[in-house]
């Protein structure tokens, strides 16, 4: 029994995705879209957890490569962001990540990123806290000024050595000379087929191992140190916002529902309803660049 439970937990921490389901919101007592009521709850919250997904970065122009219309060449991210794809075709996977790195190096935080960062700074002065738990692998929350950020899926701008395990922040453009001008996304662009010794390699003396993006691939488990911190935040928050998340990638899709199961109010901000909408107290439909600044603006009860 215990073993079974352990297996289930381990499986639950492996990153995987389900199909997107979109449809009209079923007319039930919850969730509601009462912003005035949400604002009252917000004004009393001391520890706010904001869980963000690709929708926040999409408003900065960062594609997710998750839909049919968002393919890179012939593939979606779940075809390329896997350990199997990286070991079979490291050149192709590096081209894909090189393209994504170059994209995010040129993007600026969106209105939603800025609203979250401003809220954290303002509430800190009032002895209240905001933590961002994000699935996004770009650096836009930090660029916006958010200080307390837990990146559960890793970072596009970090590498990890396959040989020595060294993790390094790496914002070089291009990351190596062989990838210069490679990674074009068009459906007819042929693979560059870069020899593995010309792909990004470790700088540590005597190592020279192959580097990989320090991101969590589909099928891999999430970093246990980060997950421990996420668990603590999920236990202590007294308000949760789930922003720009399609809630189809696990285990992050379960974070909001788990917090809601403690009786904590959870508000979803998304362009569509999601498979998890029914678990939440509030659902604010629309672009989070429009709904979030209203939700997180200074409340009249805040003392400055
Ligand atoms: Zn190394």
Structure description:
The structure is a single chain. This protein has about 300 residues and is α/β, with parallel strands linked by helices. It has two domains: about 30-60 and about 110-155 and about 225-304, TPP-binding domain (Rossmann fold), CATH 3.40.50.1220; about 65-105 and about 155-215, SIR2/SIRT2 'Small Domain'. It has eleven helices and eleven strands. The strands form three sheets. The protein has a six-stranded parallel beta sheet with strand order 4-3-2-8-10-11, sandwiched between helices. Strands 6-5-7 form a three-stranded antiparallel beta sheet. A hairpin with a 5-residue loop joins β5 and β6. The longest helix is centred in the N-terminal third of the chain and has 16 residues, at about 90-105. The radius of gyration is 20 Å and the shape is elongated. Zinc ion binds near residues 161, 166 and 209. Zinc ion (ZN) binds near residues 163 and 166.
For this structure, the CATH topology of the largest domain is: Rossmann fold
Number of helices: 11
CATH architecture of the largest domain: 3-Layer(aba) Sandwich
Low-confidence residue ranges: 1-11, 21-27
Give the strand order, joined by hyphens, for the main sheet. 4-3-2-8-10-11
Tell me the radius of gyration: 20 Å
Active site: 153
GO molecular function: histone deacetylase activity, NAD-dependent; NAD+ binding; protein-malonyllysine demalonylase activity; protein-succinyllysine desuccinylase activity; zinc ion binding
EC number: 2.3.1.-
Enzyme class: transferase
């Amino acid at each position: 029994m215990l073993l079974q439970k352990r297996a289930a937990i381990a499986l639950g921490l492996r990153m995987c995705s389900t199909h997107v389901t979109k449809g009209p919101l079923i007319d039930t007592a919850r969730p509601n879209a009462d912003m005035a009521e949400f604002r009252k709850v917000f004004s009393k919250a001391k520890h706010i957890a904001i869980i963000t997904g690709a929708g926040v970065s999409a408003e900065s122009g960062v594609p997710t490569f998750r839909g049919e219309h968002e393919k890179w060449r012939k593939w979606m991210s779940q075809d390329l962001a896997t350990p199997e794809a990286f070991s079979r075709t490291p050149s192709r996977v590096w081209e894909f990540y090189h393209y994504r790195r170059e994209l995010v190096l040129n993007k600026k935080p969106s209105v939603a990123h800025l609203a979250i960062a401003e809220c954290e700074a303002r509430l800190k002065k009032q002895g209240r806290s905001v933590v961002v738990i994000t699935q996004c692998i770009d650096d836009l929350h930090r660029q916006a000024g958010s200080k307390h950020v837990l990146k559960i899926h890793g970072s596009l701008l970090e590498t990890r050595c396959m040989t020595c395990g060294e993790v390094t922040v790496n914002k070089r453009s291009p990351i190596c000379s062989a990838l210069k001008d490679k990674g074009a996304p068009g459906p007819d662009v042929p693979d560059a087929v870069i020899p593995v010794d010309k792909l990004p390699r470790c700088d540590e003396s005597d190592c020279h191992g192959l580097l990989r993006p320090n991101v969590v691939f589909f099928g891999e488990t999430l970093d246990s140190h980060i997950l421990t911190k996420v668990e603590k935040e999920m236990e202590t928050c007294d308000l949760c916002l789930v922003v720009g998340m399609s809630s189809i990638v696990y285990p992050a899709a379960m974070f909001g529902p788990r917090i809601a199961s403690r009786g904590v109010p959870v508000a979803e901000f998304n362009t569509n309803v999601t498979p998890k909408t029914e678990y939440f107290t509030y659902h604010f439909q629309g672009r989070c660049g429009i709904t979030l600044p209203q939700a997180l603006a200074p409340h009249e009860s805040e003392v400055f």
